[in-house]
Amino acid sequence: MIWPQAVKDRIKSGHDRELIHSYPYRSACPSTVWSELTGDAESEIFLAGYTNYFLWTQVPAFVDTVRRKAEAGCRVRFLLGDPEGEVTRQREAVEDVALTVSTRIRITLEHLDRVGPLDGLETRFSAPEDAVNHVSLSVFRFDDEAFVTPHLARLVGHDSPLLHLRRQGAGGMFDRFAEHGEELWERGRVRTPQART
């Protein structure tokens, strides 16, 4: 009785409160938001994009932040698609762009090798049977906040929508997407960092 219906309709409740912001394109999310979430994370950074390529070019001082976080005891995980995998080849044919999916994955691997082997920094390739599920949905987790990108048809990642979520309780959207990422991670293949020459 106190609040008019128009006000009630605008107030989020329940699991709706977990949706902080939505962007029609991943590229519309300012790099400063990515940088803040990465910099503020204390215990968990889980980057489960198929290539994670854009992070190295669009997030300021990303290499330094990854190194600093891992050295400070934050668990930093990268889940990537297999650059030699069949789904990767299929996705390259679908996207038909000069900067191929496998090249973008290899760029991420090169950056990870430059960061060096660190306790707390882990990399896996998604299992072949999970690759289709991985390439179609990216989950980027920073403690209790996450970005989720459902990839649309033939569009590359930056042209697909992005949801910014903040965990508010058990069983909400945040947990559902986080569980998706964890399932892919558990079945993934561990990647050993390459020594720099």
End-to-end separation: 71 Å
Radius of gyration: 17 Å
Helix content: 25-40%
What order do the strands of the largest sheet run in, or round the barrel if closed?
1-7-6-5-2-3-4-8
Give the overall average pLDDT: 89
Question: Count of helical segments?
Answer: 8
Record field, number of beta strands: 8
Note the overall shape.
Answer: globular
Provide the structure class.
alpha+beta
Q: Describe the sheet with the most strands.
A: 8 strands, mixed
Notes on the structure:
By secondary structure, the chain is α+β, with helices and mostly antiparallel strands. The protein is built from eight helices and eight strands; from the N terminus they run H-E-H-E-H-H-E-H-H-E-H-E-E-E-H-E. The chain has an eight-stranded mixed sheet with strand order 1-7-6-5-2-3-4-8, with helices on both faces. A hairpin with a 2-residue loop joins strand 5 and strand 6. It is globular. The chain starts with a helix and ends in a 7-residue tail after the last strand. The model has no long low-confidence stretch (mean pLDDT 89).
Question: Which short descriptors sum up this protein?
Answer:
39% helix, single chain, alpha+beta, 197 residues, 8 helices
Topology at a glance:
Layout: H1 5-10, E1 19-23, H2 31-40, E2 44-48, H3 53-58, H4 62-71, E3 75-80, H5 86-95, H6 101-115, E4 121-125, H7 131-135, E5 137-142, E6 145-150, E7 162-166, H8 173-187, E8 189-190
Parallel strand pairs: 2-3, 3-4
Antiparallel strand pairs: 1-7, 2-5, 4-8, 5-6, 6-7
Helix pairs in contact: 4-6
Concise synopsis of the structure shown:
Helix content is 39%, strand content 20%. With 197 residues, it is α+β, with helices and mostly antiparallel strands.
